[in-house]
Amino acid sequence: MALSLVADFELGKDVLPWLRAQRAASEARGAGSGGADVLENDYESLRVLNIERNGNIIYTYKDDKGNVVFGLYDCQTRQNELLYAFEKDLEVFSCSVNSERTLLAASLIQSTKEGKRNELQPGSKCLTLLVEIHPVNNVKVLKAVDSYIWVQFLYPHVESHPLPENHLLLISEEKYIEKFRVHVAQEDGNRVVIKNSGHLPRDRIAEDFVWAQWDMSEQRLYYIDLKKSKSILKCIQFYADESYNLMFEVPLDISLSNSGFKLVNFGCDYHQDREKLSKHLSLCVFTNHTGSLCVCYSPKCAAWEQITYSVFYIHKGHSKTFTTSLKNVDSHMTKGITFLNLDYYVAVYLPGHFFHLLNVQHSDLICHNLFLTGNNEMIDMLPHSPLQSLSGSLVLDCCSGKLYRAMLSQSSLLRLLQNTRLDCEKMATLHCALSCGQGAQFLEGQWRQRADLNTNRVLSDFLKIIQWISENVSACHSFDLIQEFIIASSYWSVYSEISNVDKLLPHSSVLTWNTEIPGITLVTEDTALPLMKVHSFKGYWEKLNSNLEYVKYAKPHFHYNNSVVRREWQNLISEEKTGKRRSTAYVRNILDNAIKVISNLEARNLEPRLTPLLQEEDSHQRLLMGLMVSELKDHFLRHLQGVEKKKIEQMVLDYISKLLDLICHILEASWRKHNLHSWVLHFNSRGSAAEFAVFHIMTRILEATNSLFLPLPPGFHTLHTILGVHCLPLHNLLHCIDSGVLLLTETAVTRLMKDLDNTEKNEKLKFSIIVRLPPLIGQKICRLWDHPMSSNIISRNHVMRLLQNYKKQPRNSMIDKSSFSLEFLPLNYFIEILTDIESTNQALYPVERHDNVDAEFVEEAALKHTTMLLGL
Question: Where does the chain cross the membrane (predicted)?
């Protein structure tokens, strides 16, 4: 399936064996009995309570005496630890441990079993306790009320040394949030106790809210309060020094007035009625490292025939509301919509019905979102139990006690790319697959290690994508597949190197998409931008603020395009044809840029290439390459303030090198598939079906790059021309040359003149090629062809050059016949004029020579040409 859920933790595998070992050891000491049955009862009560920021998992179970036991699973050491046990038959619904594992906060309620009473605090429904557990010592009652209380310790970023003060959030069902400051001290060695436990300072940080969400990874609290029936989303950021700030507030066009009270990610909520789950609203906030901020919302569902859900792209200033109809709806359906955070994407799915991948970075066009319905592998393989989306693409299945890491599978997306028929699905799947290869560099710790182990697999999948594209260049009608692949892949190649690149480089070749996506309707609306409450930003908040500033002021958008390069390149080519070229230093600087690109490309690809590219001096392509380097560098310097010039230059070289490398890879994939060899490069061989297939894909590559005005690897046009000569009839070949599909290079034509003999067919081909060459190249090529036609062309050019400034002078009408080999007065007179001009020019410009072409050569060529015309 395209969405891969990798289990990182399972109660049944990571905790239960440890419990059994502990029980066995206890029984061996004679401290217990009834092993197997009791273990099964323990397993039934075993469940996850909370996942802390450092990845440690807190779980609970009841022993054979009904006591509540708290345990902790360390994700780093993969070891279990017993934290605390209550010798009372109570139900735990919220728990948290501080980072040093010295304090345990827990909320308990009276057991639901008949005949049981709450013996700890008569008259209250919920008891919130703070326990010293290093070692087990005092228990302090924080709350004893008739409403539910959730607890959560704050985790500072700096964990190198214990802090003297711990901070604990208490979230009340009565719609307020308090922060307790707990001072601790060490006594009698390592014993940790609470100081002034009789009075713990507290701050009320929020009240009158109807919804709240905890971000454990980033230590953020999101909540919504109602002001004049308007839903206002707010966010509090907690810092390493335990201070906090209200960061922003933004109105949301959603109705929560009758939705009751709901918390998200404050531990595992086992008290939510699963049968009513599908009828409740779903609301969650997702962020990622790029500064995105999305609010996903699905209102209460009265009937299942039609589903509506919205995503507010706060960082983009708009929202999108999607509506889809369901088929084969079960009237007793208990499953609701699930939202998952997949970094660059948000996944929306209803088990057994649909799966929707929404592009967070590029939300403008619906074709960049992947929508699947019906009997699809991706839908069928997803868990049907409710999932809880945590920070960092973590997903918790509370029912089974499994913690997953959700990620997109590039290999599965490739299979979907191969099998799907709709252009919109191909577009979305291609972008999903290309983004998958970028995820590894953002992983940390143990996930980074796993990503390194998968590098070869990711690279293999990427090459398979290239192979598929080379075999299906005509598979899409709504967009050019090669263009989309080159632009998107090049974008991702530099995306991670510097912030704001996504605003400066195009990520797609498609600017508009007006075709509807089958099975879903969409309404897009502008939304209010957040009101930022602070003025100094760092990290994520700096990136979010940059995104918001871009939405406010970037009109038009800053995406780079090659229009300026096109004009300048055409000017340089025109100057070259007329022989008027601007300063040598300017042109040399451009060509030096091209040399840097080629060197950068070759340094990254040490293995020899199958195709003969990058091996010749293609001045036109090098000019285009160098101009693109200059223009793109200026573009970055204008918009990336504060970034080192050297870093920008390297990023530009990497980007353009990637463009060229992708073209090489596409061509090599086709070359490898058709098993072409080096003898293809000679003109004296006949074209095969394999050569024609490669010629076809080269033509498609040329079309794709021409419309975007992108450079091609030097040697591309030479190889393209050779294959064209092999595969095309003469009239088709000449038509391709005249229409600009085939560009004649000096290397290609030189090889043609040397490889082909002077048969009548080859003479016709050679002459047709020569007359289509630019004058300067044509003169060089003619001297390589020992043939009367080339002599004739050389003579004509020589005469034209001599006579272009000739002024007729009075001459003696008598010609000295003794100096000529035959009596043909018009030719004799003409040759005498040429000889005089040559003598004059030699006197004025003694250095200028033209490869021994003189009046005598012209005379000989003229006679041969006349002889041929007369058939003598």
Answer: none
For position 243, what pLDDT does the model report?
A: 87
User: Beta-strand (E) ranges in 482-639?
Assistant: 521-526, 531-532
Report the Cα 607 to chain-centroid distance in Å: 26
- From the list 95, 88, 182, 100, the residue with the least C-alpha distance to 133 is 100
Domain map (residue ranges) of the chain: 1-112+122-213+258-269, 793-809+820-870
pLDDT score, position 628: 94
Q: How far is CA 799 from the centre of its chain?
A: 61
Q: What does each C-alpha distance from 311 to 263, 283, 284 come to in angstroms?
A: 19, 10, 10
Give me the residues of the chain with pLDDT under 50, please. 33-38, 114-118, 273-278, 331-332, 439-453, 814-815, 817, 820, 847-848
Q: Which amino acid is at 607?
A: E
pLDDT 10s digits, 151-172: 999 998 755 556 678 999 999 9
Distance of alpha carbon 79 from alpha carbon 59, whole angstroms: 13
Residue 652 Cα to chain centre, angstroms:
17
Cα–Cα distances in angstroms (integers) from residue 356 to residues 13, 339, 347, 350, in the given order: 32, 10, 6, 9
Which residues contact residue 39 at a Cβ distance below 8 angstroms, ignoring those fewer than 6 apart?
A: 16, 19, 20, 23
What's the one-letter identity of residue 765?
L
DSSP 3-state of 779:
helix
pTM given for the model:
0.84
DSSP 476-508: -SSS-HHHHHHHHHHHHHHHTTSTTHHHHS-S-
pLDDT at site 114: 46
Structure tokens at 60: 């609970």
